[in-house]
Structure formats: structure tokens, C-alpha cells
Design a protein that fits this description.
By secondary structure, the chain is of the alpha/beta class. About 55% of the residues lie in helices and about 15% in strands. The structure holds NADP nicotinamide-adenine-dinucleotide phosphate.
Length: about 400
């Protein structure tokens, strides 16, 4: 279990909460809700003699299975402190994809001064207007937003960060801060040509999830996990700024990494069990069932439906041993026997994948594909192939049989 090095902050947290309670609703609602819940949880769970906040909040160093790591929590940044910290800043959100959308709206709801910069008249421009950004006031063409901003949050697509860098770089002048949500552009600088100016802080906040989740968790009073990192620290404040920005854009807690580690783990994970490996395993298992005469519904149920609807949520709740324990003795015996066989078979593939990430092969493929003028159409073609695979066509019918099925969600 985690060992906890606690910091006493109950007095200041309560004072801040009291202040937050009288701020305008748009600026304080999420924080005061969350912080009140945290204090209540702490009071309920704390042993006698330990202050509530010491017991549950302000945690800094945790023991992750034998390795001590520092984590940063939103509870250390009550909303008034956050607003005070950024009172002289303008956060310029460059790009309005899923991350730009989620992060900018969260920062705006936290009462910070945020503007958006995207291509005028493009898809993102229209979406930003739909979300209440006003042309000429809070919505600008990219160059103008950078000129107006003090913290330049480069959330263009990774390929676009590289393509636009020659025009954008001269605008990132001394005193500004350059922010990314991925280590991609600066780590693979030989390929992307993104080399930040020497006189600005360069930091990263990488939410561990889709930008849509960044927004929905925040609206629910919860928060995404993010990593933070510093590439260049000219002010001596780069790390503190990264943590504060992590809070500003909706993180619940943050762990520390480097730009290299962030991009390696991220590219590796999404090609591995988060997306690539899982589609490959599902397909392989399904094909063998079908070749042996199982119907599509049986093959889909035994491959995807049971996994996503029953077993994987148990892993999420309490871990793999808990899921094994919740299954029949027959299932458990077989799974225990076959797990090492799959591990051994897959280990060389994961080694190969990590190397392909580290040596930049994955980056170059991504830049080539996503830099094409036809990338949206090319992607649509590849996704149509997946949509058309028997396994996923069968899945549509299986999902339609769920008692809580809603046709509009297909
Ligand atoms: N999506 C995630 O789950 C996730 C998670 C963590 C980190 N990240 C990182 O966050 C950053 C943003 O990712 P994202 O998924 O939010 O965005 P994205 O969908 O990859 O990029 C969308 C934005 O890039 C703009 N754009 C594309 N090509 C452009 C060009 N040639 N010139 C100017 N603008 C261009 C688009 O504007 P138009 O509408 O005008 O085309 C749009 O605003 C990336 O570094 C990504 O790796 C993403």
C-alpha cells in the first residue's frame, strides 16, 4: 500500500474555500464542489489525532509498488490561488481539436484569461464560435493569438505543429511561455524541425485521456490524470507553471516525467494495448472462433462484449487479481496457465515496438501520413475497412440487444 508523506494545509485550504465561496459562480463552482467533497471525504476517513487534510490531501510522495514518486494535486491550488497566479497572463490556446477544446473551456471556467487561435473560417473556428469564443475578442487567427498571449499553448495537431513552426517560431518572444501536451514536436526535432527559442520556458502538461474526457470529468467536478515535464527553464519557475497550468486545464493530479519519457510511453502505449494490440488480439481470437464454426454473435460475445462489459471494468475497479478472483475456478485456471504464454509470445513484439518509437520510425510515419493534404480522406478509408470487418459489424447487432441500448449512439 502507498505510504503517505503529508503536508499540513487544512487552515489555508479552508480559508481559500471560504473565499472561493463568495466568488462569482462561473469562477468557483467546480473548485468549491470538489474541495468540499475532498474535505468531507478526508474527515470521514481520517484516524483520530490526524488532521483531516493531512490524512487525505496534500499528498506529495507516494510509494508506487516500491518506487517513490512525487505527485501534485489540484487541492494544493485552490481557485483564488490559481487566479492570482495567472492574473497577469493570457493563455493563448493555439488549435481547437479535442484537447484545445477541453483544456481551453476548463481554463476559462476556472476564471482565467483565455483566448483561442485557429485558422480563420476553418472547422475549428466554427466550433470555437459554437462554444462561445468571440471573434476579435477571444477568438483570433493563430498569429494574432500568439502576439496577444503570454502562455502559448501549442495544441495544433502534431503534424501541423511541425508544418507551421517556421511562421510561428519568430512570434514566440522572450518572456512568453511555450506549452505542449505531447513531447512529440521537440523530442523528434530532427524530423519536426521544432526547436524552441532559447529564452522562453518550455513546458508540458499531457492529459492521460481524450480531450473530451478532460472536459467531461472537469464538469463532473472530477479531474483527469496528467503528466507534467519541463524542457527548458529560463525563469526558474517552469515546473511550478506547468503544475499550475495542469490544474488550470482540469487535471486532478499530475505526475512528473520528461518530454522524452512522455512521448515514448505515449506512442508505445497507444500502438500497444491501448489501441493497436487490442484490435489485433480481438481480431485473431475472433477469426479462430469463426474458422471453427462459431457464429458471429458467439464469437463477438466471447471476444469483445464480455471483455468490455464485464471483465475489464473489474480490472479498472480493483486490479487483475480481483478480476481473476471474480471468475469461475475453471476460467481462472486456464487464464493463469495461458497468461505467461501470451506474455512470452508478445514480449518480442513490444520490444520491437518500443525501438520503433525510440528511433523515430513511428514519428516519421505519423508526420508523413498526417501531413498529407488528403489525410482526412485517407484516414476515413482505413477506418471504413475496420468498420466493415465482420467482428465490428456483428458488434453493432450485439450492442443493439443491450437493454439500455440507444439507437442514436451508433
Ligand atoms: N487527442 C488526444 O487524446 C490527446 C491526448 C493527449 C495529448 N494530445 C496532444 O494534444 C495536441 C493536440 O491534439 P488534438 O487531438 O487536440 O488535436 P488534433 O485533432 O490533432 O489537431 C486539431 C487542430 O489542429 C489544427 N490544424 C491541423 N492542421 C493544421 C494546419 N496545417 N494549420 C493550422 N492548424 C491546423 C486544426 O485546425 P482546423 O480545424 O482549422 O483544421 C485543429 O484546431 C497534440 O500534440 C496531441 O498529441 C492529444
Amino acid at each position: 500500500m502507498a505510504s503517505i508523506a503529508a503536508r499540513s494545509a487544512s487552515q489555508s485550504l479552508r480559508r481559500s474555500l471560504a473565499k472561493a465561496a463568495v466568488r462569482p459562480a462561473t469562477q468557483s463552482a467546480k473548485y468549491s464542489l470538489l474541495a468540499r467533497a475532498a474535505v468531507n471525504r478526508a474527515s470521514a476517513a481520517t484516524p483520530a489525532g490526524v488532521s483531516a487534510v493531512q490524512g487525505a490531501r496534500g499528498v506529495k510522495t507516494l510509494d508506487f509498488a516500491g518506487t517513490k514518486e512525487t505527485v501534485y494535486e489540484r487541492s494544493d491550488w485552490p481557485l483564488p490561488k490559481l487566479q492570482e497566479y495567472f492574473k497577469n497572463d493570457t493563455l493563448a490556446m493555439i488549435g481547437y481539436g479535442s484537447q484545445g477544446h477541453g483544456q481551453s473551456l476548463n481554463a476559462r471556467d476556472n476564471g482565467l484569461n483565455v483566448i483561442v487561435g485557429v485558422r480563420e473560417g476553418g472547422e475549428s473556428w466554427k466550433q470555437a464560435i459554437g462554444d462561445g469564443w468571440v471573434p476579435g475578442e477571444t477568438l483570433f487567427p493563430i498569429e494574432e493569438a500568439i502576439n496577444r498571449g503570454t502562455i502559448i499553448m501549442n495544441l495544433l495537431s502534431d503534424a501541423a505543429q511541425s508544418q507551421t513552426w517556421p511562421e510561428l517560431a519568430p512570434l514566440i518572444t522572450k518572456g512568453k511561455t511555450l506549452y505542449f501536451s505531447h513531447g512529440f514536436s521537440v523530442v523528434y526535432k530532427e524530423d519536426t524541425k521544432v526547436v524552441p527559442p532559447k529564452d522562453v520556458d518550455v513546458i508540458l502538461v499531457a492529459p492521460k485521456g481524450s480531450g473530451r474526457t478532460v472536459r467531461t470529468l472537469f464538469k463532473e467536478g472530477r479531474g483527469i490524470n496528467s503528466s507534467i515535464a519541463v524542457w527548458q527553464d529560463v525563469t526558474g519557475k517552469a515546473k511550478e507553471k506547468a503544475i499550475a497550468l495542469g490544474v488550470a486545464v482540469g487535471s486532478g493530479y499530475m505526475y512528473e516525467t520528461t518530454f522524452e519519457k512522455e512521448v515514448y510511453s505515449d506512442l508505445y502505449g497507444e500502438r500497444g494495448v491501448l489501441m493497436g494490440a487490442i484490435q489485433g488480439l480481438f481480431l485473431a481470437q475472433y477469426q479462430v472462433l469463426r474458422k471453427n464454426g462459431h457464429t458471429p454473435s458467439e464469437a463477438f460475445n466471447e471476444t469483445v462484449e464480455e471483455a468490455t462489459q464485464s471483465l475489464y471494468p473489474l480490472i479498472g475497479q480493483k486490479g487483475m487479481d480481483y478480476m481473476y478472483n471474480a471468475c469461475s475456478t475453471t476460467a481462472r485456471r486456464g487464464a493463469l496457465d495461458w497468461a505467461p504464454i501470451f506474455e512470452k509470445a508478445n514480449l518480442p513484439i513490444f520490444e520491437q515496438l518500443y525501438e520503433s518509437v525510440r528511433n523515430g520510425t513511428e514519428t516519421r510515419k505519423s508526420l508523413e501520413f498526417n501531413g498529407r493534404s488528403t489525410y482526412r480522406e485517407d484516414l476515413a478509408k482505413e477506418l471504413a475497412v475496420i468498420d466493415n470487418q465482420e467482428i465490428w459489424r456483428a458488434g453493432k447487432v450485439v450492442r443493439s440487444l443491450r437493454p439500455d441500448y440507444k439507437p442514436e449512439s451508433e
